[in-house]
Amino acid sequence: MKRKWIIRAVLILAAAVALFVSARILLWRSKKTTVTDPEYVLFYAENQTADYPTTLGAQKFADLVYERTGGRIKILVRYDAELGSESEVIKQMMYGGIAFARVSLSQLAEYVPEMNVLQMPYIYSSSEHMWRVLDGSIGDEFLLKTRDYGLVGLSWYDAGARNFYSTEPIKCLEDLEGMVIRVQESDVMADMVSALKATPVKIVYSDVYSAIERGIVDGAENNWPSYEAMNHYNVAGFYTIDEHTRVPELQICSKAVWDKLDESDRRVLEQCARESAVYQRQLWQEREKSSRKIAESAGVTVIELSKDEKMRFRDAMSSVYTKYCGDRMDLLNTIIEY
Question: How far apart are CA 123 and CA 100, in angstroms?
Fold first, then answer.
């Protein structure tokens, strides 16, 4: 009797092992049908830190693409400017050296000059105003315009409003006069600062901290998250909210890479890019609040300009509008009134 129970137990155990192995084989086969070895492994350039909203948005985009192509397209996000400055990345993308990137409109406008109208100083009254423009027909038209320059615009990312920060307080237009202010590698931003009677100096983003610390510049201009993420509040303790520009950012693809993909993959990329933009904008709002709180906790003095003082800053921009939008003033006025 005991022997029969032993035999029966062995048979039950064997059946259980067989069932487990069969289940594992079926699971393995199922995975093999949904996730394959990548057909494309493509790089995505990002110059911000790993936890920055645009970097997280880029990773969301990469994850969505991987999932929806069954693993055929794998996108590797490289942050902290590992693949070069934004300007260097754009140049490489025009020849297919890098597949994807998130870049500032200010940087892209250096290569796609038509974009300048979207970043003129003081043209957006609020964040909602800007998104009405960019999420509508005007924004779609500009995404398509990038294709004339070897790039493909995929979606718009948020970068908030840019403000001045400095080692001495800026409470009115006269306080800027004679200051040396760091600007992006952007002619528009340089001309804006010049119009305010300060001296612009173009310095790459990663060198701003040391430039302020060493006294090469008296300040810079950027949004709250950038100011906080790079610890600029440690060397420039006055943050003046003038909201001179709301410069959106774009997810772009190299047209050389784009042209190698079939139509179904392109549709996936566009859809994933737009979904990641929604995700990134939510993160941005949260990060903007937390960054301001961190900076204020560190002792930063926040200066909010009055409505009348902001209008004085805007009135100083007439020469900038004429230079960059002379033949597109109708569009500029349409955007202002949109």
Answer: 29
**Strand order, beta sheet including 199-202:** 199-202, 180-183, 219-222, 162-166, 238-245, 301-304
Question: Can you give the three-state secondary structure of 168-235, one letter per residue?
Answer: CCCCCHHHHCCCEEEECCCHHHHHHHHHCCCEEEECCHHHHHHHHHCCCCCEEEECHHHHHHCCHHHC
Q: Would you say residue 24 lies in a domain?
A: no
Residue 320 domain-assigned?
yes
Distance CA 264, CA 260 (A): 12
Q: DSSP letters along 57-69, please?
A: HHHHHHHHHHHHT
- Count how many domains the chain has: 2
Q: At what angle do helices 187-195 and 318-325 cross, to 10 degrees?
A: 150
pLDDT tens-digit series, residues 120-135: 999 998 899 999 999 9
Helix/strand/coil for 47:
coil
Its pTM stands at 0.77
Q: CATH number, domain at 86?
A: 3.40.190.170
